[in-house]
Amino acid sequence: MRHLFLLIAVLLFPLAGLAAETTPLRVRLADPFIELHGGPGSSFPVYDVVERGEFIEILRRRTDWFEIRATKNRQGWVRKAQLEATLQQAQVPPTWRDRLVENVLADRFRFGAAGGIFDGEGIVTIRGGYRTSEHISVEMAVSTITGIFADSALIQANVMVDIQVLDSLRPFFLIGYSRFLNVPDNLSGGGPIIITNRHNLDMLQAGFGVQWFLTDRFLIRGELLEHATVRGNNRSDRFSQFNAGVSYFF
């Protein structure tokens, strides 16, 4: 519960940063280089680069981005991660938000929704995930499958490994466990229940897909999964699933 309150505080009251400074902080760049963006976000283009040894002035801060001014009146926004050595050398103390992110939210949470096809029928999915490291996440997903003769539920638990190809593009593959719950329909409104060839199933799944980051935290995700289960007499059932949707890190 304490972490929840801290998270709400971060989302609702982000620091402008360095607000107490009445004049810009002038420091020598200790990091190898910094990229100047046109605004406080990676979606803004990089228009210049400042190299180690140059003096810069830190004008203000917006969440994890600093507005700086370099020589020749070059001014732009720099991600905090590119200024770590410079801030440490200049003995700029971390804000309470920095400490919170490092201690509580360093591994990001993810929430998403998607729609698609499961075994030829429509499926709607909501999911939540937790990034345990830079390239590995664990996630849970709950889906509703609407068919002609049955409405079913699919519960999944996955481990996802992604690979960064470009700044905005991350292919991934995943493996996990799923539970299929079949609920046959009563089409006549009082008559017999329609029996389908599906049953409640425990399955293993594997799949691959791609994530396209529109911003640092908002992404579009598409994936293709194959579910498989083995029942009596070595009979194997397989189901294919395709999803496309959006996710958000916080």
Structure, described:
- There is one protein chain.
- This protein has 250 residues and is mainly beta.
- The chain contains 3 helices and 14 strands.
- It has an 8-stranded antiparallel beta barrel. A 4-stranded antiparallel β-sheet has the order 1-4-5-6, with no helix packed on it. Strands 2-3 form a two-stranded antiparallel ribbon.
- A hairpin with a 2-residue loop joins strand 4 (55-62) and strand 5 (65-69).
Beta-strand content: over 45%
Shape annotation: elongated
Helix content: 10-25%
Can you write the helix and strand succession as a string?
A: HEEEEEEHHEEEEEEEE
Q: Please give the CATH class of the largest domain.
A: Mainly Beta
Radius of gyration: 24 Å
**Tally of individual helices:** 3
Count of spatially separate domains: 2
How many distinct beta strands?
Answer: 14
Kindly identify the CATH topology of the largest domain. Porin
| Cα-to-Cα separation, first versus last residue | 16 Å
Proper CATH architecture of the largest domain = Beta Barrel
How much is the average pLDDT? 79
Main sheet?
Answer: 8 strands, antiparallel, barrel
Catalogue the unreliable spans: 3-21, 187-197
SS content category: mainly beta
Strand order of the largest sheet: 7-8-9-10-11-12-13-14
